[in-house]
Amino acid sequence: MAKCLQCGKEFTPKRKHKIFCSDSCRGAYHKQRNAKCEWCGSKIPESRMNGKKPAKYCSSRCMNSATKQRYIQRKNQGTPYERMQNQDFLNAVWSKVQDKKLGELR
Description:
mainly alpha, elongated
């Protein structure tokens, strides 16, 4: 019995040098090994690649910077209620209301 280098599952290898239980585990392992930080673009160190979920950032500093940037972007987009306050939207709704009222008066 051998232990998969990616997922840790016990498997019976068909060849004695096989170290992955499947092609998907082999692909995931190599994808992780060549992973780059989404924030700064540097190579992610092996110490941050543990478990089944690949690391996105090389350090907690990059992770915190990316999280802060996402927060700022979401804050600037506004809530659905704030987007409804858009003047074009209100004008379109108001014109429909006026058309209905005119239709009822006739």
